[in-house]
Amino acid sequence: MDELELLKKDWQKDDNNYPKKSYNEIYKMILKKSSSIVKWIFIISILEFILWAGISYALKDADYNQRFKEYHAESIMTPLMILGYVVIAYFLYRFFMNYRTISVTDNAKILMENILKTRRTVKQYVAVNLGLMIVSAFIVLGIQFNRDEEMISIVEKASANGELFKFYAVTIIITLLVLALIVGILLLFYYLIYGILLKRLNRNYKELKKLEV
Amino acid sequence: MNKELEHNFVELLEKHQNIVHKVCRLYTNNYDAHNDLFQEITIQLWKAYPKFRGDAKFSTWMYRVGLNTAITLYRKSKRSITTQDYSDVQFKISAEAYDDTEEQQLKLLYNAVRQLNDIEKALVFLYLEDKNYNEISETLGISEVNARVKMNRIKTKLKTILNP
Lengths: 213, 164
Prior knowledge:
- The complex is a heterodimer.
- Chain A is mostly helical.
- Chain A has helices spanning 3-13, 23-30, 37-61, 63-71, 74-101, 108-147, 149-160, 164-197, 199-212.
- Chain A has nine helices and no strands.
- In chain A, helix 3 runs antiparallel to helix 5, helix 3 (37-61) packs parallel to helix 6 (108-147) and helix 5 packs antiparallel against helix 6.
- Chain A starts with a helix and ends with a helix.
- By secondary structure, chain B is mainly α.
- Helices cover 71% and strands 0% of the residues of chain B.
- Chain B contains eight helices and no strands.
- The longest helix of chain B is centred in the first third of the chain and has 25 residues, at 3-27.
């Protein structure tokens, strides 16, 4: 005998054993806020957009950046800044378009795919920003080597002592270490937040995909 | 959202609430978690309700939203730590028509189903609700053939859990 048939018989007849909710109880529930992962992904994604937009905004006004005006490097810095804004606009648009396609009435697989797609957009956004940050760091370094008077005099001194190579190497290594540290912290943050948030979704999506092969 | 919509929805859900309870029963282990998931499914149903069209049956539509919430959207609440398991308080299997061995067997069966993974539970749930493979495949987004194959594997898996 099929065990599931026995279970089915029981499953379909024990309708009265559940803790029935009254009209008022259900009414109260629909006034409460959802705590679904989609809501959390939305909040965290928006925070990520704000964070990166905030970082570039803060840098724009920093003393450091004011000094840049003296270098007459606008021809390099302005396109970089515009590129930053285009990136934000493009990814925000894609994020909202993806977010809007998430519907709980789709089938399970499509729902999971749409959530993952939304996530991927934000991930790409952060990756592009990180890339831009690394490229900018080296461009800034290059500009400073060429146009910053303090820097030029240090370079000349180092050159006179025969330590030019050492100086460049140390500067570049320190820059790389700082960048690696920032990337590392971000990756850890990602691993923790999304690892926890998407654990169940990823597991179940994998299971569904497995059925297709 | 207008009052009439609210009223219609709450009335419909009150009438069909067993579907939600059944999803919660499969996916949670205790009373608090059951209530928590029940609430989240209710919220998701309500949010999707304005787009619900009469062309689908309300109950069929509920299966989809309920399962999607349980296997994809739901985050376990921190509140559900210190409660008793179902077996102690809730959902005593109705035993009138059964003798002891059958009751015992049912208990073991329910426990075995709880050991399945989320997707397997979804298949079992729809199967227990007498849904055909076409409906199962549409709800989960897999092909009908694969739904059948998986269901057979689940039956074997259950047998193995029951007779190790």
